[in-house]
Design brief:
The chain has 144 residues and is mainly alpha-helical. Helix content is 97%, strand content 0%. Helix 1 packs antiparallel against helix 2. It is rod-shaped and about 110 Å long.
Length: 144
């Protein structure tokens, strides 16, 4: 009987250790996601700033078209095309990042399901432990 209880206690300790390790891994991934979120926000801010810059440049070029000679207008149009190409390039990079986010979200969801499953196991083990402790407390009464 004592061996069974000792075995059950060792098994509970092993399960607790495994769960602790799983929690550590999940925590490390959560930190990575938090860092990624900050970088994502910085990228969004940068892209918004770039968009505002492009919009301001567009209106500047349009107003100067009416005031400047046609050669100056041609120069500004070329500049606008360069900026638009830059924005297209950044948009491609953004789409790659969005794909990466979707992949990370899928992995995060999977880890979350695993964690919930492990929490259920811990609860079950805790209930088992309570039952076994209750049985153990009855032994002295039975022996006495």
């Amino acid at each position: 009987m004592e061996e069974k209880i000792e075995c059950a206690l060792k098994e509970s300790e092993m399960k607790q250790c495994r769960l602790s390790k799983a929690y550590g891994c999940l925590h490390a991934q959560a930190t990575s996601i938090a860092v990624f979120s900050i970088q994502w926000k910085e990228l969004e801010d940068h892209l918004e700033s770039t968009r505002q810059y492009i919009e301001a440049r567009f209106w500047e070029v349009k107003n100067r078209e009416e005031e400047e000679h046609s050669n100056e207008v041609d120069f500004k149009e070329k500049r606008l095309v360069e900026v638009e190409n830059f924005v297209r390039e950044k948009k491609g990079e953004l789409n790659e990042i969005l794909g990466s986010i979707e992949a990370s979200k899928g992995e995060f969801d999977l880890r979350e399901k695993e964690l919930k499953s492990m929490l259920r196991l811990i609860e079950e083990c805790g209930k088992e432990l309570e039952v076994k402790e209750e049985k153990l407390s009855l032994i002295p009464e039975l022996l006495g």
